[in-house]
Design a protein that fits this description.
It contains 10 helices and 9 strands. A 7-stranded mixed beta sheet has the order 4-3-2-5-6-9-7, sandwiched between helices. It has a two-stranded antiparallel sheet with strand order 1-8. It is elongated, with a radius of gyration of 21 Å.
C-alpha cells in the first residue's frame, strides 16, 4: 500500500490524470523511447507515462509544478539513476540547460489545457535543442495545430506552429481515459522542429504581426484586415488576391507578405 494519501486533481493546475493502460501503451509506442535518448516529461502527475519512459533506458528529466506530487514521484522513480525531478513551472523553465551533453531533447507531456498554447511557444523559442515533442492536448487544439489553408480549424495557432514544426495529429483519446474525466475529447500530437525552415521569414515578429492582423477579423478580406500594414497593390504583387479571406492563404503566402512588409519598413529607414 502506498504511504501517500490519494492525490486529488487540482483544478487550478488543470489536472486530469491519465489512467487507461491501453492509451498509455499507445502513447509509449508513438514516442518509441530508446536508451541513449534524453526525454523530458512536463507535468508527469502521478507517473502514468513516466514509468514506461523510465523503463526505456533513456535519460529522463521531469518538470512538475504541484509540490504535493514531488514526494510521490521521488518515491516511485527517485532510485532510478537516469531520473531527475525538477520542481517548478515549465513555463519558466530553461530547457536548454538540460542539453550540456549535446543530445537533443524529446519532450513529452499531458498538458493542462489552460497553459498548452503558451507552453508550446515557450518550447518553440528553444527549438534548437529539441528533437521532437509529443503532447496530449484538447482535440480542438490539435485540429487547429494540424489544419491547412481552407480547413475549418485553420488559423493563427496552426500557422505559427507549422512555421517552426512539422505537425502530426496521431490519434484521439476519449474523456474516460482520465480521472477526473474532462468535458472534451483529447488527442496526441507530434511536433518535429524543422531542421531547416521551409519558408523562412526575414523577421518572424513581422510574420506574427501579419498573421495576427489577418485573423483579427477572419471573415474580412486581406485588403481590409491588412490595410494598416500593406495596401492592395503590395498584396497582389506577392501573388495573392487582395479579396481573398485569410483562411485561404497558406503559410508560404503569409511569409511572402511578412517579407514584403520587412522590405517596406527597411526602405523607410
Amino acid at each position: 500500500m502506498s504511504q501517500f494519501a490519494p492525490h486529488r486533481a487540482r483544478k487550478r493546475f488543470g489536472q486530469n490524470f491519465l489512467h487507461d493502460p491501453g492509451v498509455i501503451n499507445r502513447i509509449h509506442r508513438a514516442i518509441a523511447p530508446r536508451a541513449g535518448q534524453h526525454l523530458v516529461e512536463i507535468g508527469p502527475g502521478q507517473g502514468a507515462l513516466t514509468e514506461g519512459l523510465v523503463d526505456s533506458g533513456a535519460r529522463l528529466d521531469v518538470v512538475e509544478l504541484d509540490h504535493d506530487l514531488h514526494p510521490i514521484l521521488q518515491a516511485r522513480f527517485g532510485h532510478q539513476p537516469l531520473f531527475q525531478l525538477h520542481k517548478g513551472d515549465a513555463l519558466k523553465f530553461d530547457f536548454s540547460q538540460l542539453t550540456a551533453d549535446g543530445v537533443k531533447l524529446r519532450v513529452v507531456g499531458n498538458l493542462p489545457y489552460n497553459i498548452s498554447t503558451p507552453l508550446m511557444f515557450h518550447l518553440l523559442s528553444q527549438s534548437e535543442c529539441i528533437a521532437d515533442m509529443h503532447f496530449m492536448l484538447q482535440k480542438e487544439v490539435v485540429q487547429r495545430l494540424a489544419a491547412g489553408a481552407g480547413m475549418n480549424h485553420y488559423g493563427r495557432l496552426g500557422i505559427m506552429v507549422q512555421y517552426h514544426c512539422q505537425v502530426e495529429h496521431l490519434f484521439d483519446v476519449g474523456p474516460g481515459a482520465f480521472s477526473p474525466a474532462p468535458k472534451v475529447d483529447s488527442a496526441i500530437v507530434r511536433l518535429t522542429p524543422h531542421t531547416q525552415l521551409p519558408h523562412p521569414a526575414d523577421d518572424p515578429k513581422l510574420l506574427e504581426l501579419v498573421v495576427r492582423e489577418a485573423f483579427n477579423q477572419r471573415r474580412k478580406t486581406l485588403r481590409n484586415t491588412l490595410k494598416p500594414l500593406l495596401d492592395a497593390d503590395s498584396i497582389a504583387e506577392e501573388g495573392l488576391d487582395p479579396t481573398t479571406r485569410p483562411e485561404q492563404v497558406d503559410l508560404a503566402g503569409f511569409v511572402r507578405l511578412a517579407n514584403r512588409l520587412a522590405r517596406q519598413q527597411k526602405d523607410l529607414t
